[in-house]
Amino acid sequence: MLDQIKGLHHVTSMAKDARQNNAFFTGTLGLRRVKKTVNFDAPDVYHLYYADEFGTPGSVMTYFPFPNIGQGRPGAGEVGTTVFSVPEGSLGYWRERLEKEGVAGLAENEAFGEKRLSFLGPDRDGFALVEAKDDGRAPWAKGGVPDDEAIRGFHSVSMRLRDAGRTAELLKFMGYEEAGQSSGIRRFTIPGGNGADVVDIETLPGAPFAGLGAGSVHHVAFAVENRARQLEVRKALIDTGYQVTPVIDRDYFWAIYFRTPGGVLFEVSTNEPGFDRDEDTAHLGEALKLPSQHAHLRPYVETHLQPLGD
Prior knowledge:
Blueprint: E1 8-15, H1 18-28, E2 32-38, E3 46-51, E4 60-65, E5 78-86, H2 91-100, E6 107-111, E7 114-120, E8 126-131, E9 153-161, H3 165-173, E10 177-182, E11 185-189, E12 198-203, E13 217-224, H4 227-240, E14 248-249, E15 253-259, E16 265-273, H5 298-304
Parallel strand pairs: 1-4, 5-8, 9-12, 13-16
Antiparallel strand pairs: 1-13, 2-3, 3-4, 5-9, 6-7, 7-8, 10-11, 11-12, 14-15, 15-16
């Protein structure tokens, strides 16, 4: 069993409209945009990062807004819900705030002894807020949400799978421990993790497979401290039979990718070097940053990307 993985690093999803996406995460949810860059493989498409003040691993929601993308089709083989941690007693504030903003799909329930508020994002993305006990992570203080209610980072992701068995074994190999079941959901946690410590699995044997599009999670990334720990994880996964990519430089972290038995794309990302490698912390996410291989495209990119309105 591995001990290098410390919880979630980031979640990357797809969207249709960059301006709407930016307004929702920085305005409605009160997160900080910590990086404005472009897709490595499609430099005419943004890659937008939202997080806490510093872009701390375990708090980073990222998006590829493709203007002509079709709507995603929910189903098995994907992350169905991305869950944020908020302080105890704050769901009343959030329900009122989200209702005022016209957010769809609001529903309250309780699972694993935690109160939760589910809702839909602009592309019908599945989200929830969970009142988490003893989450000492600091929120982004300038997002327009009072500190006593503001998002702390991720709580968890919930995967929808036709068969949970092999993915459950993979999570255990990655260092997760099974922590119980509630309403058919199996919960896995990382002991002593980074605060974004939970992965849930919902088993839906007869569900159609998901179709990637706007509102879909593209991949979920797990955090390791540095490149040395990442190489240890990569070797262990390969030795176990997984097809793992070489290490890829993503400017703000190094990444490896592999497909899980249930169909979800996993990434393992380093905490280093971080989002302040090319911007001062006080100005994260303000300037358009381009990967070095796309620097020569700046005149074209700047005129073709949709203005974000901020």
